[in-house]
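Ligand: fe (ii) ion. Inputs:
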Amino acid sequence: MDIDRSVVVASLGGETAVKDMSHEARADALEDYLAARLQAAVAARQSNKPYPTVADHEERVDRRGYRRGVGRLFVHEHNIQDPDAEAPTLTVPRLAPMPPKPTLIDFFRLRFATSAHLLQSARLAQKRGASEETILACLLHDTGQSLMKADHGYWGAQIVEPYVSERVAFAVRYHQALRFYPDPSVGYEYPETYYRIFGVDYVPLPHIARAYDYARNHKWYMDARLVTLNDLYSFDPSVQVSIDEFTDVIGRHFRQPKEGLGNDNTPVSHMWRTMINPDAPL
Ligand SMILES: [Fe+2]
Ligand SMILES: [Fe+2]
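Predicted complex:
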């Protein structure tokens, strides 16, 4: 892969910013840059291919060493994309230790596999004047994917349910189903990416169709719909959003347990502990 030094330096915030980085941070940044380039190369190659069908996806199931529903913390992202890609076997990163009483912000900094996506979605919702609860729902909407991509709306809602309002949990849970159903009244269309991810002839599963019907007629429908509207697929690597922008929203709407997430003895504490230590063999 060709690397243009000036492009890499610019993408990291310029010469001064790069000079101020530690060796480790610089190495991490270069790795992120290369991973993004690789992903773009894979995407460009895919764009010349026709959309796969459901049968194509079925046929690939036992050609992978993992299942597609596995959480993003547990397998390298770019190994998940395409079994036919010529990518080398990529390894997962070593995770930094978590503080003894981890906060939601610690998870954004050190664990959530989709942090950049979540932050960009929340920033977009904020720019469009969404309510603080909607901004928080956008910030949390794909947290479930760190643990499990399959049915991630349900996993995500469950993980945060003890700490947020019912309304925020509703938006997180139902955004998953709403993604499959257009709503022209707000300009939401079926995502083009889904033709590729699920197959061009994919029909949402019955539980998703039922969830859509339920959410469509619910008083909080628009909360979940706004999550799908601010849910971006095209990430702009030049836009760096910091979790610091949302500390006030989190402070007002996320009930951080004083013992730390994972230590607070709720029905979901083990899920946070699993994200703290996804390398545990049992
Ligand atoms: Fe999602
Ligand atoms: Fe998303």
